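Late entry, written up from scratch paper. The run itself happened at the end of the previous shift, but nothing got recorded in the book at the time, so transcribing now.
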Amino acid sequence: MSVLSQEQFEELARLGVRVEEALRLERAGGRIWEKPMPDGDHAEIIAWLTRRCVQADAGWWLHVGQGLRVEQGSKGNARPDGCLAPSDTFVGQGEWADAEGVLMAVEVTSRDHGTDRQDREEKPKAYAETGIPVYLLIDRDFDTVSRRTGQSACWLAEPGEEPKT
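Output as recorded:
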């Protein structure tokens, strides 16, 4: 269980970036961990999904790198790989924003197997507790795309297929 307050964690995350630019910290369920830097394939997946989201509604944007206060009472901090929200949702907010207005949180699995638990268990729970209605997991290990609403998951696509709309 983390003993840090919200403000203390956010300051620790800011200081961490000053020491090492690639250091990105998150916390949920009372645990703190380092989020790995994305690779080129990861960036291409996010670019593809961004184009799909904007095609669906030009007023939406898949915000990348935006820190969110998550969990009940905003006790956690996460940096989804993308968060779908109206394009002006985070105007005037800082590095860590309230999740109000976020329609979907997106995570793309990394090649770092240490993050499996966060992407598959801790983050979906934290996003659901925050009130984010949809969690999209693009799983490169299993070549699947899954969507969670609440605590249930349903498959959107078979490996090699486009997600169904």
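Helices lie at 6-19, 40-56, 116-130.
(Scratch paper discarded after transcription.)
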